[in-house]
Amino acid sequence: MTLDQQNTDGPVAWGDRYPETAEPRKRGLTRLLSRWRRPGDRPRKRGLSSPLARRGGDRTRTPHTRQAGVRRYPQVAVVVGVVWAAVMQVRLFLGGHVGLAGFGENLPCRLGLANFRNPALAGWEHVQPAWIAHTWTGESCPPEFSTALFAQAAGKWLTPLLGYPGALDLRALGVVFGLLVGVVCGLLVAVVPGRPLVRAGFASAVGLLYADAAFAGYLISPHAEPTALVAAGFLVVALLLVWERPTAPRVVATAVPALLVIGARPEYVTFVPVIAFALLWVPGRRIVALMVATWIAGLGVFHVVTETGFDDHRAVFQTILHDDPTAAADLASLGLDPALAPAAGLSRDDAAWVSFADRYHRTAHPSPLRVAGFYATHPWHLIRTVGWGLQGVAGLRPNYLGSYPEGAGKPEGGQEHRITVYSAIWEVFRAGPLLVPVLWIVTAGAGWLVVRRRSLTPSEKATGRLAVVLPGAALAQFAVVVLVHGRVETVRHMAMTSWLTAMCLPVAAVAVTLVLTRLRPVPRWQHRHESCASIHSQMDEIKG
Amino acid sequence: MGKTVFLWGRFTVLLVATACAAPATTHPSAAMPVGSCHVMSQPEELYALSDVRPPVPCTQPHQTETYLVTRLSGPLADTPIRPPHELLVPMVTAGCDYRPIRPYLAAGPHDAQWGVSVWGKVPTPDEWAAGDRTLRCDLLVPTTHPNGGPVLTAPLRGIMNRPESAAIRRCNLDGRDVQCSLPHEWEWVEPQGLTRNRCRANAAMFAGRLRGLRIRLGPDRSCWVGQERHHITVGTLREGMAA
């Protein structure tokens, strides 16, 4: 924490770097502290009065002096943002557009749209970006809500402006999402710590994540994931800003990307406790943070209650009972009719399921809590299901959904590999899915060490906090997907978990670097408030 | 700041308001008579359990036509809440009797309908809760274009007596079955499992002539009739309907 941020009401740790000296002279305290100074942490405003004057509330300070101590490198941020926005456009559109096949995803029907596709195809084969105006009646368009509808409504508005055919062309969404990825990268340059090159490198690692074949396809797809993934990038930026200096506007602004993420899919309700924890972690503006967390929790819970229908068939018959030698006993444990044991592993589309359908619907159905309780008391089942979940995360991208449009000369279900940096790294996790939790633990551990170092700046500590929160969010999301979807379409349902896990790589790299390079302990006397007078006297001496 | 927030809020409201779909007019399930035609251009509409879109005139493009309206019966029909999809499908399959189909199409003993499938529609959950147990049985016409959905602009009732019946007759081109409204070489004649002489006699009764025609007995003893000299044609050879 820098001294110019004491208006956050948080405790002042004197071991934190003091950034005020414009011309570091290698004397006394300045000499000691200069080891940790980097250009990014120098204040832009110079000639401030003594720390005590500032700490005591210098009435003459301007709004600019409140910002002192945090450099944003706006030119670098703009360049990085523009470059990544351009990379995303090129990556999505050069040589013909690519995306992800919808395969029955009909969310845009809520906007009065119907997919214009070849009816002879099932939907997984190709990207079908064009949607036409259509009047839906009755239950042919389920009344589901997702914040992705906001993005799709914007795409509907942009489609004619960009010259695309139909009422909504998903390529318009691709343009918008690509630009927003550039904005996320630019903002990351402004908020992460380090030299410009380090910041640009970190932002580019995040840009590469969005550009990777595992996630870029979502940006031109009717799924809800692209809205959540892009909003998650903004959420990371917002949290870094809050952790850097928790002002009321920053805390409130976090609610926007948070709600966009949580409202995209019912499973994303797992972000509610994570975001609440993140907002309340740092001292300062806790009342506002608590209020925002309450709003987010309320809306998130309302969304999940109104949108979720827990399908115990997937969780029980296709997951727990899959290749289960004790199916009858397990059914009894779950409160289901043991006579349904022969239906173990059958999907609803299976012809053999019809003979069990009546009995299934007449039996009691377990709640998600009951299924969770079953896992708690049956560790072997828990290990099996977690294993399938880890394989889903390690899978990274659904291998049955095509990337190319029809007529592009690609085979049905053909997948693009334009940028595959993370996909290539993921070969390690495919070989050993157990490395996924190892990555979570390493990231969280490094982050925790960073957070505990008092000698680091708020922005550095914010990166540490991000390293702690990301694995937590990934783990919570992983748990819910495993519980609700089991081993049914695990890879696709794990998209957010995979994204959060992949984000752990650059964040862990920064956190580990901070741990390794800034682990030099700060002398104990610098940690104590009682030493303030001593430090101030030295600083006054240095400044002459 | 406040003005910016206000402008963004207004933009968002406008965006959502203009993007959201206007509520569609609906038609009660119980008020769909036999012979009504229905637009179901999207697969989701076809797979939905109920259909409350108002019917269209059968001379307009449509996908299905109601050939039977009956009532669901049995223990499941007594439940106050509509049973789920997997339980309703067997009820619908059993309830939609196939026997009225050929009379509805006016199919004679040598006419064979081909590519026509049966789709049942039940009341919506609200209609079910109100006591409606109407079961509507529709005929879905086959797809005539390889990249297009099924579309018909003529009523199916009595279609076998009209040239439009080529859309639901079975023909063959280079060993591939197609509708007779598409280019073909051979046309199927009911019934199958016959001798060559019997096939010849049936073909004569089907086409009203034998001159200029040839017959072929398939490996499954199916009876096919075609024009001479590998003539590729469109339409049916049925007596009185040939082009």
TrEMBL record, chain B:
It comes from the Bacteria. Residues 1-21 form the signal peptide. The keyword Signal applies. Keywords: Signal. Residues 35-190 form the Septum formation-related domain. InterPro entries: Septum_form. This is Septum formation-related domain-containing protein. It comes from Herbidospora solisilvae.
